[in-house]
Amino acid sequence: MTSQPPRGGEAKSVIELPAPRLRGEVSLESALATRRSIRDYGDAPLSPEDVSQLLWAAQGVTAPDGGRTAPSAGALYPLEIFLVAGNVASLDAGVYQYQPPGHTIVRLSAGDRRGPLAGAALGQECLREAAAVIVFSAVFERTKEKYGERTTRYVHLEAGHAAQNVCLQATALGLGAVPVGAFDAAAVHRALDLPAEVRVVYLIPVGKRE
């Protein structure tokens, strides 16, 4: 991963991710057959390539018109993806926001937040022990302007699509992952000091299998 100097006076640095691979050694059918919820992880760090593939699977841009890896009602893309890094090679511990155009991440805050995140999620140890946690959040207003009362349904469907992409990608990479829905959303927001406009909807801890 390479870091670019801040632009426009911003204190936040932009980190380029390795280019995502479009071919792997594991078929989709094999990933579907072997995907399981894994809550126990080894001590080995995730690689930059692992992180790149997981974030790309969640919301990577795959078409010239901005289409992404997961479908979105009205192509409004309300999801915002954050990476809580704790044990990632060549990446300092901290909270990062994924930027689909350009396939980069921006560090929002420094320091290992896995402990506070686990506390906000009813003490689930998988969040503390994972090498990293992918946080799915959404700006509901992007969808609400067009879809009104259907907004919550559509955003939650979209989060499910993207989360399954991540779980299948983790399986294809030989990693362990588990979808987590039991958490205090406001407490997660505070623990990670996320932007005010987003609401947390899903967590996926990821790590090397033991």
Description:
The protein contains 7 helices and 8 strands; from the N terminus they run ββααβββααβααβαβ. By secondary structure, it is of the alpha+beta class. The chain is globular, with a radius of gyration of 16 Å. It starts with a strand and ends with a strand. Helix 1 (28-34) crosses helix 6, helix 3 (114-120) runs antiparallel to helix 7 and helix 5 (140-147) packs across helix 6. It has helices at 28-34, 48-59, 114-120, 125-129, 140-147, 151-172, 185-192; strands at 2-4, 14-16, 79-85, 94-99, 104-110, 132-138, 175-177, 199-208. A hairpin with an 8-residue loop joins strand 3 (79-85) and strand 4 (94-99). An 8-stranded antiparallel β-sheet has the order 1-2-5-4-3-6-8-7, with helices on both faces.
Helix content: 25-40%
Inertia-based shape: globular
Determine the CATH superfamily: NADH Oxidase
Taken as a percent bin, the fraction of beta residues is 15-25%
Biggest β-sheet: strands ordered side by side in the sheet = 1-2-5-4-3-6-8-7
Question: Got a strand count?
Answer: 8
Low-confidence parts: 3-10
Indicate the structural class.
alpha+beta
Radius of gyration, in Å, reads 16 Å
What is the count of DSSP helices, taking H or I runs of 4+ residues? Answer: 7
Helix and strand string, N-terminal first? EEHHEEEHHEHHEHE
* Biggest beta sheet attributes: 8 strands, antiparallel
- Tell me the number of structural domains: 1
Q: Compute the average pLDDT.
A: 95
The CATH topology turns out to be: NADH Oxidase
How far apart lie the N and C ends? 25 Å
> What is the name of the CATH class?
Alpha Beta
Please name the CATH architecture: 3-Layer(aba) Sandwich
